[in-house]
Amino acid sequence: MSNAKNNQFLISHDFFGEEISVDISKVFPVVIMATMSCGKSTLINSLLGKDILPSRNEACTAKVYSILDNDDDALTKVFLTYKNGDVSTVTENISDALNMANQCDDITQITISGQIRGVLNTKKTLLIVDTPGTNNSIDKSHEKITKKVLRKVKGGLVLYVINAEQMGINDDRALLIDLREYLDKHKNVSVLFVVNKVDSIDTEKESLEDFLFDIKKYLNDCGFASPEILPVSALAANLFNKVLAGESLTKKQSRSFEYVFELYKPNGLNLVSYAITRDYPTQYHFVEVNGKKYRVSDIVGALTNTGIPYLERFIQNAQIHSSTSSKVKVNINKES
Predict the structure, then answer these.
(1) pLDDT digit string (tens) for 30-46?
(2) Within the chain, how many helices (H) and strands (E) appear?
(3) Which of 135, 145, 170, 227 is exposed most, by the fewest CB atoms within 10 A?
């Protein structure tokens, strides 16, 4: 097989195993990497626009979630592959099924087909790969699982999630060094550093600009000369998505919503908030959270300020640039 033919495959042929058939030539992988408690699952749920992956602080079983974007079907489907080769399909009670799969040693692979609302597929289909947190002292297999996944990814994008509350811990540095070595060997893979939980920073003691400059210096020290860094709040984005979708919040979520809305609400004139289009049909409507009314357009603006929509555009652009496109050249005929 020629090199030109090989270059179109960004993942290995055996990525999905023999039981699940996927045209890997049309897949654009985005690998999510982080140490534990960085909010990876919350971040992915914010991209999905709904809670699908289990999100909790304690250690999860060493499982890899492969989420394949399906723009043509809003129904979420989970395919569970067992050791004996059987595959079961789940379309209801997804969260319960995934929690069960986390605890089941007989399940070797978890593949999810669902709609990633903020990113449209181009010539390639988006594949989000969630790897286990690598600093799990209880289960040392997490690091091996993550390295096994990376060996099967030849191109695409890595989203390295940094916890703003725990920046610079030793486990984080060790994983960053592994990532640097991996990127040196795979020139078709780029990386975006996503700093999550930035709303936990006490800006009265330290400015966000200084904090991000410290992260840049830290990444420089770990071998990344010109790191691209994006601060986000996946938790805030999740809450805004829930309210916009008409979901009820718990009392705790309602209190968190009030806090993050005050933090991220838009200021000044924004003409987009006055548009009445197919994308924004209900901007003049109001929703009620904990007895207080909020205008839909203000929540949409607050969602934008969480950084998650920008992250979606970043992924979309990376996906577009990965597709082969014909280049049109202008030739000037010399005068005789």
Answers:
(1) 999 988 878 898 999 99
(2) 10, 11
(3) 170
